[in-house]
Amino acid sequence: MNDNAYRVLFLRQKFLFEGRFLGTRHQNPDFVQLAEAFGAKGLRMENPGDVKPVLKEMLACKGPVVVEAVIDPDDMGPTNLEAVFSMG
Question: Which domain holds residue 8?
Answer without folding.
Answer: 1-25+77-88
